[in-house]
Amino acid sequence: MTRKSWLIFAAMCIIWGIPYLLIRVAVRDVTPGTLVFARTAIGGLILLPLVLRAGGFGPVLRRWRPLIAFTVIEMAVPWWLLSDAETKLSSSMAGLLVAAVPLVGVLVARLFGSDDRVQAARLIGLLLGVAGVAMLVGLDLGDIHIPAVLEIAAVVVGYAVGPVILARRLADLPSIPVVSASLLLTAIGYVPFVVLSPPHNLPAEAIGSIVVLGTVCTALAFILFFALISSIGPARATVITYVNPAVAVLFGVTLLGEQFTLGMAVGFPLILAGSVLAARRAAQPKSAVAEPVSVAVID
Questions:
Q1: Residue 291 falls within a domain, yes or no?
Q2: pLDDT, tens digit, 9 for 90 and up, residues 58-98
């Protein structure tokens, strides 16, 4: 990796690790629906100049069925569920639970007909990951809100299924127009939430959190993420998903004063180890053409 690639990689590890903290701060003063609207509207509009440079939305909108499916499954529903869950869960817990995405991604790939064999190491990884989630939730059962955990579980499934739609039906389209269209469609869908429950007298920290979510953690994040994929490939770029939860915990504990629990200490290493093992791909002959790797769009 070049120095530029390392810088982008490090930036992405942080940029997609801090949304959990920002969401937790924002939902103290705005509804989850309003937050999703503001974040996606800001991000989608910022990306518009790049969309125009790439030729506009024409080719993307002609694939409106998979575009809408991707938008709903990857952004519109998961981002509301995540925001709602963080009204009851700490940002640290939310970030660690989302770390299960690579585990679910392996299962989703199998359900969608991937020919990638499940070797013993990958099976062990899946079992370790499940044990990690059980420890994360079970050891802290008295301190967590079960419905919120179920919301995060739905988020994890959405984050695992969305990239499959992207890879199978939208992969030949320019990435930025696809993402910008999805963001703007989500924002349009959440306009009623703002109309019915408009925010009033927002404190500076809430405004700052929303602005950073939209500009840095959404618009800039996607620009950098696609640059990282172009530089080092999708398989190596997925490593950031193993670092993001640790960043979420670090910021949650140090900046919000959240408790670092026994469940986190035991569960996260198991989830991390399980994700690494489960996401390993079988070695292929040199003459074989590698199957494209879909990359989850995560906060």
A1: no
A2: 999 999 999 999 999 999 999 999 999 999 999 998 998 89
Enumerate residues 6+ apart whose C-beta is below 8 A from 92. Answer: 20, 248, 249, 252, 253, 258, 260, 264
Q: Quick check: is 89 in a domain?
A: yes
Residue 285 lies in a domain: no
Neighbours of 249 (CB within 10 A): 25
198 is in which domain, residue-wise? Answer: 3-278
Give the separation between CA 222 and CA 46, rounded to whole angstroms. 11
Rounded distance between C-alpha atoms, residue 15 and residue 7, angstroms: 12
CB 218 within 8 A of CB 43: yes
The length of the chain in residues reads: 299
pLDDT digits (tens, 9 = 90+) for 129-178: 778 777 777 666 666 788 999 999 999 999 989 988 998 999 999 999 99
290 in any annotated domain: no
Distance CA 207, CA 223 (A): 23
Would you give the DSSP letter of residue 286? T
How far apart (Å, rounded) are the C-alpha atoms in residues 219 and 64?
22
Those residues with Cβ within 8 angstroms of residue 231's Cβ, 6 or more apart along the chain or in another chain: 1, 2, 4, 5, 8
- Can you give the pTM of this predicted structure? 0.87
**293 phi and psi angles, rounded to 5 deg:** -105, 125
DSSP state of 139: T
Number of domains in the chain: 1
**Sign of the CA dihedral running 236, 265, 24, 274:** positive
Residue appearing with tokens 């939310």: 94
d(CA 247, CA 79): 19
